[in-house]
Each structure stands twice: as C-alpha cells, then as structure tokens.
Amino acid sequence: MALARATRYLRTTRIRSVVRRHILFDIIMIAVFIWLVSGSLFSIVERVGMTDGLYWALVTMTTVGYGDIVPRTAAGRIIAMLTIAAGIAVYTATVSVAASSIVEAAERRRQGYTKYRGVRHIVVVGWTPASEAAIRELRARGYTGDIVLVADKPAALIREAELEGVTFIRGDPTRRETLLRANVPKANMVIVSTDDDAKTALVVLAVRGLNLNARIVAEALHPENVELMHKAGANIVVPTRDLGGRMLATSLIEPGAAMFVEDISKAEARPIELHEFPAAAFAGRRYRDVLLELRRKGFTPVAVRRRGVLVANPDDNLVIEPEDILVVVVPKTSS
Questions:
Q1: Which residues pair with residue 310 across a beta bridge?
Q2: Where in the chain is the domain with CATH 1.10.287.70?
Q3: What is the pLDDT of residues 252-262, one digit of tens each?
Q4: How far apart are CA 59 and CA 62, in angstroms?
Q5: Which residues of the chain have pLDDT under 50?
Q6: What is the CATH number of domain 271-334?
Q7: Where in the chain is the domain with CATH 3.30.70.1450?
Q8: Least crowded by CB within 10 Å, which of 32, 75, 105, 252?
C-alpha cells in the first residue's frame, strides 16, 4: 500500500510538473505578445520610433515607470492602462506559478521524493535501530560528509529521529530506481540494515551491481546468512543478534572483556575508542617496536588490517608493510 501511494504521488507530481512547465511557457508567450502589441500600438499612436515603443511597453508592463516616455494622446493613455493591467496580470501569474513550484519542490524534498546529485557520500539503506545508531555514530566520530538515507518509511517517522544533515530518499530499497535516486553509483560507502536478511541480501546485490568500488557493510540478523551476504557483495557483515547474544554470555563468564566492549560502544561519554591509522610511517619495523612507541603516546595497537584481512593480536616479530592499517585503542581525551 505504501509503495502504491508513493508511486501515485510520484506520477501525480510529474504530471503537475509538466503542466506547470506548459503554463509557464504560455505565460511567457502571452507576455511577449502583449509587449510587442503594446509597443507597436504605442509607436503608431504616439508617433515615436519602434524602439521607443517597445522600451515604453516593457517599462510599463514591469511597473517601473521611469516617466521619460509618456503617452500624450487619449488613445495612448488607453493603451497604457491596458498595458499596465496586462503587465500586472502576467506578473501575478508568473509569481504564482513560481511560488507553487518552490512549494512543491520543498514538499518533495520533505517527503523524500527528490534525487540526490552529490558524490562520494554514504548511503544508509533501511530504517532500523541499527541504521539510526550508525548514522549517529558517523556524526559522533566527526564525519561531516553527506549521508543519504533510503527507506520505505513515512517521512514523519524519519523526522522524529531529528537526524541532522541527512538527505531522505523514500522508496523501495530493492528497486533500482530508488537506489539511483540516492546516486548509489557515485557513493563511497553503503550501509545496509533492513528487518529481513533476504531483503538485505537483495539490496546488497543491487548496490554491488550499481557500484563495484563502494565499501558495503551489511547487518545480518542471523549468523547463517553472513556468508550469503558476503557472496552478494558485502565487504563486511555484522551479525548483530548473534554478536549481542555472545556478549550477554561473555558478560557472565568474563565480565572484564564485556566491559571493554561496552566502553568502546557507548553512544556518549565513552572513555576509549577504536580508530584506524595508516601504518606507512612504520613500514619495515617490527610490531613490537611500533607497539612500544605508540604506548608512550597513550595509544595501544590491538590489530593490523592487511589486504582486507584482520590480524588480531599480531606476533611481536610481524614486520609492518606500507599498506597496513593499524587498529588502535585511543583514550577519548586524546582524540
């Protein structure tokens, strides 16, 4: 039902837009006709040049009224009165059509039926607690680029979240047309989180088909679907429910480990954070030496990301390569 209403809204809006363009074109043609006729009649009646007549007609229609050329005959004054009335009518009609277009464009943006034209942005597909938290985390970590949210939810529901700097695109995220309106082919990264793993996998497949280079992160509600989403094209899959269940169990058996994860996952006032840093400056050095150097600065490396593979708790003698990425625990006060 929601999709059908959205489709009808888009179709009706397109028809109105076409009609409005035709009306505006007609108004312009009428204005040009009035200008030419009034200028010609004024030139004939007042016995002035055609250039002066057209100049007078334009000044009169726009209600500027410089007064440098004025009608001196009764017929000229009648033409002037008609020209003034016609000019005001054309001006009013033009303003009305323009204002209507502006209001409709604003309403389309508010409802999410516009097209995003930026590039190298982040697209968040689906409106779930996880996707909302992801958007807030991106802003909390200082990401200032554009975020485009794609969802088939009502715009009022999205506005209740009070997300700043987020462009909303309303539509079925499994449809190519909706993803194109979010300019997925030019996106830098994509987050996919829906209420259904099958739908998420379908969206990941569609996104990868439109963009071969974007980093895609998907949420899996069930761990058995992680491999499926990787095959669909996701770079990283987060099994949120399985991860949450394991965290609950860990909290009972090894509370310290659970407390560490809790600290880095707090929405606000967290004492530590996990960050990634390029390791090019440490290329050729052993991991142990890098660890000691960074520890003196208050940072603690815990893993190395190498060619898409995470090496957790690396061996002391691991030699850092120029393309490596260090995963580092950073105190919040030093960020």
A1: 305
A2: 2-111
A3: 898 988 888 87
A4: 5
A5: 2, 334-335
A6: 3.30.70.1450
A7: 271-334
A8: 252
* Number of other residues whose CB lies within 10 A of the CB of residue 176: 12
Give the closest residue to 33 by CA, choosing from 57, 50, 62, 56.
57
Rama region for 284: left / alpha / beta (φ>0; ψ in -120 to 50; rest) = left
> Rounded to whole angstroms, how far apart are CA atoms 124 and 273?
23
Please, what's the b/e burial string for 221-249 (b: 16 or more CB within 10 A of its CB; e: otherwise)?
Answer: beeebbebbbebbbbebbbbeeeeeeeee
Q: Is 122 exposed, middle or buried (0-12, 13-18, 19+ CB in 10 A)?
A: buried
Residue 163's φ and ψ, nearest 5 degrees, are -85, 130
Topology annotation, domain 2-111: Helix Hairpins (1.10.287)
Instruction: Provide the whole-model pTM.
Output: 0.68
Fold of 122-243: Rossmann fold (3.40.50)
